[in-house]
Amino acid sequence: MREPLVIYGAGGLGKEVLSLVNATDSYEVKGFIDDGISPGTFVKGVRILGGCNELLSFDSPINLALALGSPMSKLDVLKKIDRSKVHFPILRHPSVILQEASAIEIGEGTILCAGSILTTDIRIGSHVLINLKCTIGHGVAIGDTSSLMPGVNIAGEVQVGSSVLIGSGVNIINRVHIGDNSIVGMGSVVLRDVEAGITVAGVPAKPIRK
Ligand SMILES: CC(C)(COP(=O)(O)OP(=O)(O)OC[C@H]1O[C@@H](n2cnc3c(N)ncnc32)[C@H](O)[C@@H]1OP(=O)(O)O)[C@@H](O)C(=O)NCCC(=O)NCCS
User: Fold this and answer.
1) pTM of this prediction?
2) Which of 51, 123, 128, 148 could staple 141 via S-S, CB 3.0–4.6 A?
3) Strand, coil or helix: 71
């Protein structure tokens, strides 16, 4: 039997997570939580249950998926909710390839979207988003609450910090370190380490602002 699940965020990513969950046979989506849409509204046939406060009113623990691309938004929600009442399952589209599953660690609440491929000796933290068609090579580590947008390619031994946002179509060469809370602009090619807290972009990627 499918377990009930609630999705936080009913925007574009929320709709994609709904369709990912519907492609698995593990969970059944019972509703969305969204702070910007009136409770009772339906999004793709699924009811908006309410905003963040609604989560505090549940009596029994619920399965929750954070369909939020921005690391800051994920941290905001995680700060507000009562963690004893929420379980964060790992959600993986059936097409995702874990080439050597026994050598890949994935933390709670991480979402792996269709077409992504992870090879071996990989550590993915909690609440990470690996969007469509990403490739992650040997020895890569990705910190908690980071988000990879569609089509990111990460070569071997790369260390990505926590709460990092990597834009769509980014390519990262082997062995670089991407600091916590940094942003890599879409389409960039990263050839050198990225300092914590800065935004880089371009080919090759260079800082555009602190
Ligand atoms: C990097 C990013 C966060 C910067 O956004 P921003 O802070 O609003 O920056 P701006 O748009 O004001 O741009 C600042 C400068 O950086 C340049 N720049 C911004 N993004 C760039 C990119 N991806 N590649 C190259 N240059 C870029 C701009 O041209 C501008 O240059 P200028 O000062 O010479 O005019 C944003 O452009 C980006 O790439 N976001 C990720 C989007 C994404 O992947 N979405 C996924 C959808 S599924």
Assistant:
1) 0.97
2) 123
3) helix
Pair of tokens at residue 187 = 């389409």
Q: Which residues line ligand 1 (CB under 6 A)?
A: 149-150, 167-168, 183, 185-188, 199, 201-202, 208
How far apart are the C-alpha atoms of 162 and 120, rounded to whole Å?
Answer: 20
Q: From ligand 1's centre to the CA of 185, what distance in Å?
A: 5
Report how far ligand 1's centroid is from the alpha carbon of 50 (Å).
33
Listed as own residue / partner, the contacts of 13-18 with beta carbons closer than 8 Å and 24 or more positions apart are 13/67, 13/68, 13/69, 13/129, 14/43, 14/67, 15/43, 15/44, 16/67, 16/113, 17/65, 17/67, 17/91, 17/111, 18/44, 18/46
Rounded to the nearest whole angstrom, what is the distance from the C-alpha of residue 205 to the centroid of ligand 1? Answer: 11
What is residue 55's predicted lDDT score, i.e. its pLDDT? 82
As averages over each run of 10 residues, the pLDDT of the chain (210 residues) reads 94 98 95 96 97 83 96 96 90 98 98 98 98 98 98 97 98 98 98 98 91
Cβ count near 27 (within 10 Å): 19
